[in-house]
Amino acid sequence: MRIFRLALRRLAASLPTLLLILVGMFLLLQLAPGDTVDALMAQMGGGDPALAEELRRFYGLDLGVAARLGQYLLRLATLDLGFSAIYGKPVATVILERLPPTIMLMASALSFAFFFGLVLGVIAARRVNRWPDTLISTLGLIFYATPSFWFGLMAIVLFSVYLQWLPAGGFSDITRELSGLAAVLDIARHLVLPTLTLGLIFLAIYLRIMRASMLEVLSLDFVRTARAKGLTETRVVARHVLRNAMLPMVTLIGLQAGTMLGGSVVVESVFALPGLGRLAYESVVQRDLNTLLGIVFVSALLVIAINFLVDILYARLDPRISAES
Amino acid sequence: MRALRAYLRSPPALIGSAILLAVLFMAATAQWFYPNDPLGLAGRPLQWPGANPRFPLGTDPSGRDIAAQLFHGARVSLLIGIVATAIAVLIGIAMGAVAGFYGGWVDTGLMRVTEAFQTLPNFLLLLVLVAVFGSGIETVTVAIGLVSWPPVARLTRAEFLTLRTREFVQACRVQGLSDAHLILREVLPNALPPVIVYASVVMAVAILLESALAFLQLSDPNVPSWGNLIGLGRNVLRTEWYVSAIPGVAILLTILGVSLVGQGLNDALNPRLASGR
Fold first, then answer.
1. How far, in Å, CA of B211 to CA of B229, rounded?
2. Helix (H) or strand (E) holding B48
């Protein structure tokens, strides 16, 4: 319960940050050349100024900046994100439709990076400065330097074009009607390459952090005690070292939630996944500023939610944190 | 001197320096090897590397020389990397120094702003900035600098927090020196080494951000950027995959060089940490 209260307090502290982001973005987007109405008129193939005036009044774009900002924030409080003129639907609906692929992609990429980063980091630390360590550390450096979109393209060439093992893009096979387990497996097959692509750089970061943190914990006194009382090395690592060495990695998940969400913009675009990131890209190209602002809001919420979960996880791993408060 | 010798003894640092020197060489000699416009028509489109001795790395879908774009692209990547990093480091140091030195409500306020920037996915913010201010090469560079400073600010602030209570700073304070003098002449030089090391990470990320933006065709199309070329190659990926593959290797090697140099600097400047790694 204490843990929960602690995390709730952190959550409350992020409210001013959220407000700052929203006001900043709203003001920033005021500087954009052209508004939704201009984009709409361009889509309709032009129109007379009177119609544009009418549309501006309809969307409330004829008011002053301060008035519109106030209105926007008030509407946000009721989770109304406004209307997307490009998609002809409320922004909230558009975003909700696009949210599941992004969350699935992020969850699978995070699990992939976390698990393999942990395993490789432990192996490297236990064979420090010998060939498994050198190999793993070098691979980590190369993965870190690989541009994700390029890795994705090359993976498509190898696995989809030449070997034809995996689909090149999309979220599910639209030529077949699938249901139940078959549909789940189909989506999973489509997510393999995007997961690898998005997770690669995080795998590199996690394995480096895990290795460094393992080495540090292995040199602490309580590990010597555990060894002295005759535990096998495997047991020492599994029971005593791992839990402590994992803490920096857990911190990193929270810190990099935003980076991962940003990375999914590129990855979703490479693999034509109908997710939030691609929506962000499309709304930039189509100048759908209402949707863009909504995506920024939802992304910030997502990052705050991930940090909330990380706080709870952290406190569970390290009982000292909740004891201090 | 000791730091320099330690740097020269580390193999990763030497490999990294060699790679970066090669990229610098490409950037410096681009005009000399390929005096013509790298974005101009050079020959028949989509010739495979090696098929025509005039184009050792082949031509892209528009009949432009890939090798020429690679050489001129090195300039763009390095320029964007260096300028954007300088912007990010300057903003980060200014924010972090003021927040860490003064503490109190100034610190709280500046850290709230930093948090806001960190909560917002940086690539998303970059997209918004490009959408608002256009995608000229100068705009893109400044925008990348604007989204990359928060970690620098946090690092500088942490250094300032530990340094500002040290005896030598207090001695200067007692002498009645101004805050500006204390920040710039006393604390900052001691806080700089970790920030300089971190600048290599900022530069690697800046180059990656630009190439990702160019890949999405949201960067300046009139500049021979490696990311642009990867994006163009995407349309012919199934058959002529080399168009995307070659510039990607160039980006990979450049980032690798920057990271290795950063790691070498870190080991040389922080000898206490180096022993464990």
1. 9
2. none
Q: How many CB atoms lie within 10 A of CB B149?
A: 25
- Burial degree of A51 (CB within 10 A; 0-12, 13-18, 19+): middle
**What are the residue ranges spanned by the domains of chain B?**
2-274
Q: ipTM of the assembly?
A: 0.85
**pLDDT tens per residue across span B121-172:** 889 899 888 888 888 888 999 999 999 999 999 999 988 888 888 888 888 8
CA distances from A73 to A30, A81, A92, A294, B209 (A): 15, 9, 15, 12, 31
Q: How far is A257 from chain B (nearest CA, A)?
A: 8
What is the rounded end-to-end Cα distance, in angstroms, of chain B? Answer: 22
Nearest residue on chain A to B263, judged by CA atoms?
A141
- The answer to whether B155 contacts chain A (CB < 8 Å) is no
**Three-class DSSP category at A75:** helix
- In whole angstroms, give the CA distance from residue B173 to residue B178: 8
Inter-chain CB proximity B128 and A142 less than 8 Å = no
Nearest partner of B220 among B148, B146, B139, judged by Cα: B139
pTM, two decimals, is 0.87
pLDDT in tens, B233-246: 888 888 888 888 88
B2-274: what CATH class? mainly alpha
Give B15→chain A minimum CA distance, Å. Answer: 12
Contact B248 A147 (CB under 8 A): yes
